[in-house]
């Protein structure tokens, strides 16, 4: 079963916010790149929180019948990348988020104000 990208974005945002992710940003990539429709970028303050956020996203997507195409970085919990197809979720440890600053790399994308 396929979940529409807008609904998938809403689910991912709710999941990261439920686990108290910090500085949550959603970027609309539809007019910028064919990679994905949206990026969700957030961070946690510890390895445990980063893993907890990723686990919640996985749980919510599976319960909705969505498909997770890949998850990288769960063991180290410094930058967890979750490929949900039309939505890619980046969950950083606070220090790595400041270092990589991917919001700057994708500055052509519009920030999603509300869903």
Automatic annotation (TrEMBL):
<dbReference type="GO" id="GO:0043023">
    <property type="term" value="F:ribosomal large subunit binding"/>
</dbReference>
<dbReference type="GO" id="GO:0090071">
    <property type="term" value="P:negative regulation of ribosome biogenesis"/>
</dbReference>
<dbReference type="GO" id="GO:0005737">
    <property type="term" value="C:cytoplasm"/>
</dbReference>
<keyword id="KW-0810">Translation regulation</keyword>
<dbReference type="InterPro" id="IPR004394">
    <property type="entry name" value="Iojap/RsfS/C7orf30"/>
</dbReference>
<dbReference type="InterPro" id="IPR043519">
    <property type="entry name" value="NT_sf"/>
</dbReference>
<keyword id="KW-0963">Cytoplasm</keyword>
<comment type="similarity">
    <text>Belongs to the Iojap/RsfS family.</text>
</comment>
<comment type="subunit">
    <text>Interacts with ribosomal protein uL14 (rplN).</text>
</comment>
<dbReference type="GO" id="GO:0042256">
    <property type="term" value="P:cytosolic ribosome assembly"/>
</dbReference>
<comment type="function">
    <text>Functions as a ribosomal silencing factor. Interacts with ribosomal protein uL14 (rplN), blocking formation of intersubunit bridge B8. Prevents association of the 30S and 50S ribosomal subunits and the formation of functional ribosomes, thus repressing translation.</text>
</comment>
<dbReference type="GO" id="GO:0017148">
    <property type="term" value="P:negative regulation of translation"/>
</dbReference>
<dbReference type="Pfam" id="PF02410">
    <property type="entry name" value="RsfS"/>
</dbReference>
<keyword id="KW-0678">Repressor</keyword>
<protein>
    <recommendedName>
        <fullName>Ribosomal silencing factor RsfS</fullName>
    </recommendedName>
</protein>
């Amino acid at each position: 079963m396929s979940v529409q990208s807008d609904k998938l974005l809403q689910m991912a945002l709710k999941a990261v916010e439920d686990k108290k992710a910090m500085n949550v940003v959603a970027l609309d990539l539809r007019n910028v790149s064919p990679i994905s429709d949206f990026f969700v970028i957030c961070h946690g303050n510890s390895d445990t929180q980063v893993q907890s956020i990723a686990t919640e996203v996985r749980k919510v997507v599976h319960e909705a019948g969505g498909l997770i195409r890949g998850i990288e970085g769960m063991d180290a919990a410094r930058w967890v990348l979750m490929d949900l197809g039309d939505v890619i979720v980046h969950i950083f440890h606070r220090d790595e988020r400041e270092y990589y600053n991917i919001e700057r790399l994708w500055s052509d994308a519009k920030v999603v104000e509300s869903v």
